[in-house]
Design a protein that fits this description.
The protein has 203 residues and is an alpha+beta fold. The protein is 15% helix and 34% strand. It has helices at residues 11-16, 89-97, 103-106, 152-162, and strands at 3-7, 26-30, 51-53, 55-61, 77-85, 87-88, 112-119, 130-135, 138-144, 170-172, 180-181, 187-192, 195-201. The strands form 3 sheets. The protein has a 6-stranded mixed sheet with strand order 2-1-10-4-5-7, with helices on one face. Strands 9-8-12-13 form a 4-stranded antiparallel sheet, with no helix packed on it. Strands 6-3-11 form a 3-stranded antiparallel sheet. Strand 12 (187-192) and strand 13 (195-201) form a beta hairpin. The model has no long low-confidence stretch (mean pLDDT 96).
């Protein structure tokens, strides 16, 4: 399975990092080795002094598809989740400055948190899902999928042009504003519509 991640999908997050607004989705991949194992803490890697949390709504693919039309995209997923795209921001800045790929900053071991899943049928509208991240009981990120530049079905249409989607693939749909550094002993709790879907500690 593969993790397909969308960058720069919320206007306020683009602004906070002073990035250009993209004309089409920014796509990168994480390997399955990036997945943080259940009930394990997140260990800050020794190659970074500035790892940031980025909370994101996740979609799990449930059938094989290629060149999926947006009007059929809803048939290719039946679960919604929440996770974190951990980013070594200092390393990413160095790579971006040289025009190099981001993978070392985004795809290292443990850099992908995948929380519990909820049936898509729980949601009246997947384009209006509220989600939050708390750090040490303080709200640090909050978003709603209505604020995405590219909605879930549009993302599926776009990425399936380039990659065959397979059962079990997971799409990270982008993060809202409020990303920030994590430190040892931080506790991160992510929730959708008030329902906690993951809780992790930082080491």
């Amino acid at each position: 399975m593969k993790l397909i991640c969308i960058g720069r999908n919320y206007t306020e997050h683009i602004a906070e990092l002073e990035n250009e607004r993209p004309e089409e989705p920014v796509v990168f991949l994480k390997p399955d080795t990036a997945i943080l194992l259940k009930k394990q803490p997140f260990f800050i890697p020794d190659f970074s002094n500035d790892v940031h949390h980025e909370v994101e709504v996740l979609v799990r693919i449930n059938k094989v598809g290629k060149y999926i039309d947006k009007k059929f995209a809803h048939k290719y997923y039946d679960q919604i989740g929440l996770g974190i795209d951990f980013t070594a921001r200092d390393l990413q800045a160095k790579l971006k400055a040289k025009g190099l790929p981001w993978e070392k900053a985004k795809s290292f071991d443990g850099a992908a948190v995948i929380g519990n899943w909820l049936p898509k049928s729980n949601f009246e509208d997947v384009n209006s899902i509220n989600f939050t991240l708390e750090k040490n009981d303080e709200l640090v990120q909050q978003g709603n999928t209505s604020l995405m530049l590219w909605k879930i079905d549009e993302i599926i249409e776009y990425v399936s042009k380039y990659f065959t989607l397979k059962i079990g693939d997971i799409i990270f749909t982008g993060t809202p504003a409020g990303v920030g550094k994590v430190n040892a002993n931080d506790k991160l709790v992510g929730a959708i519509e008030g329902t906690p879907l993951f809780s992790i500690t930082v080491k």
